[in-house]
Design goal:
Number of strands: 5
Helix content: 25-40%
Number of domains: 1
Number of helices: 8
Strand order of the largest sheet: 3-2-1-4-5
Radius of gyration: 18 Å
CATH architecture: 2-Layer Sandwich
Structural class: alpha/beta
CATH class: Alpha Beta
Shape: globular
Distance between the termini: 47 Å
Order of helices and strands: HEEEHHEHEHHHH
């Protein structure tokens, strides 16, 4: 564990300093010039404080395209094991997949993220569990701006077609997205990336001048931004 001086953070590690250095300049307003990172986590349960991250999957988007070459997939060692959730995510405690520590995972994730805008479906949980991990390592919270595809969907006119909970599965069906590798972090990140692009296309029909502030504004507008 790193030896930090809290709360002054005088001894924060170099990778954290590199990470925060990416936020010295403002992001461009033009969404086509912004790097988005679609993120998903698989965890031992639904408590962001007590449960632990099993895997993180990320894929980058730029200029309205998913960049498969710009991706990250991490599996973490399971010091906390919940056999009841294995049926959902399929990640065994041992297995043949290479797993790394929380510290290594955090460093890899921050080096990868830089100042990208994070996109996730029902993002609050993913961000909470990552920030809980950072807190255990005596690090501050993530600095990235965050977009939730569930909230973005409310901005579209198609929101009125939904009469039930808009889960990732439900929205994939609505937008005719084939579901592959569901309930793996990397697979769900890829599906969410496709969903994000479909939602963006809907929003751009209503507002060709769509920008980042429009996406970050959380009041439902049903496509009339």
């Amino acid at each position: 564990m790193w030896n930090f001086s809290w709360p002054g953070h005088k001894k924060l590690p170099e990778f954290w300093k590199r990470y925060t250095g990416h936020f010295r300049s403002d992001l461009p307003a033009d969404i086509d010039r912004i790097r988005f990172v679609v993120l998903d986590t698989e965890t031992t349960g639904l408590d962001p404080v007590k449960d632990r991250i099993l895997s993180i999957g990320c894929v980058g988007l730029y200029e309205n395209k998913i960049r498969v070459s710009d991706s990250l997939e991490i599996y973490l060692t399971q010091d906390h094991f919940n056999k009841e959730t294995v049926a959902v995510h399929g990640i065994l405690r041992q297995g043949r997949i290479r797993k790394i520590s929380e510290q290594e995972a955090v460093e890899q994730l921050l080096n990868y993220l830089e100042n990208a805008v994070i996109v996730a479906h029902h993002a609050a949980f993913d961000l909470a569990v990552i920030n809980s991990t950072l807190k255990r390592l005596s690090l501050p919270k993530l600095k990235n701006k965050v977009l939730d595809t569930g909230i973005l969907f409310k901005k579209t006119s198609r929101y009125r077609e939904m009469h039930a909970h808009y889960s990732l599965d439900a929205l994939c069906e609505l937008f005719s997205i084939k579901k592959h590798d569901r309930h793996t972090a990397a697979g769900d990140a890829f599906l969410t990336g496709i969903l994000f692009l479909r939602i963006l296309a809907e929003l751009k029909k209503a507002n060709p001048a769509l920008n980042l502030k429009d996406l970050l504004f959380n009041k439902p507008t049903y496509g009339l931004i």
